[in-house]
Amino acid sequence: ALALGAEITSTFKSDDKIKLGHADVVEEIIIGEDRLIRFSGVASGAACTVVLRGANKQILDEAERSLQDALCVVSQTTQETKTVLGGGCSESLMARA
Fold first, then answer.
1. Cα end-to-end span (Å), the chain
2. Which residue of 1, 17, 70, 81 shows the fewest CB atoms closer than 10 Å?
3. Per-residue pLDDT tens for 50-62?
4. Residue 68 and residue 66: Cα distance in Å, rounded?
């Protein structure tokens, strides 16, 4: 609802108070055996969906944890732009000094 610029409602009794969203294209896509609804040209333009697929529950759980870790890194990097290079870079620089 947020990506479409709409509000979630539990009843349709008062049509004039319901805020409907907008998308340029609404289509059903099939990934493997799963059917998904894809909205393109949404109002906010900043929404996405990640579809994880795996052979079993353990692989999906690990993929979800990895994705969560990556999203946290991106979030922290955008909030704090100072970085420290990894892979022993700091130790190498200190050893040369």
1. 56
2. 81
3. 888 888 999 999 9
4. 5
Dist CA 52 CA 64 (whole Å): 8
pLDDT at 84 over 80: no
For residues 24 and 21, give the distance between their C-alpha atoms in angstroms, rounded to a whole number.
Answer: 10
- Cα separation, 58 vs 66, in Å, equals 12
Q: Can you tell me the distance from the alpha carbon of 27 to that of 68, in angstroms, rounded to the nearest whole number?
A: 27
DSSP 66-86: HHHHHHHHHHHHHH------T
Do 28 and 39 meet the contact criterion of CB atoms below 8 Å apart? no
| 8 Å CB contact between 42 and 5 | yes
Q: Is a pLDDT exceeding 90 seen at residue 92?
A: no
Q: With a threshold of 0.85, does the pTM exceed it?
A: no
- The type of residue at 65 is R
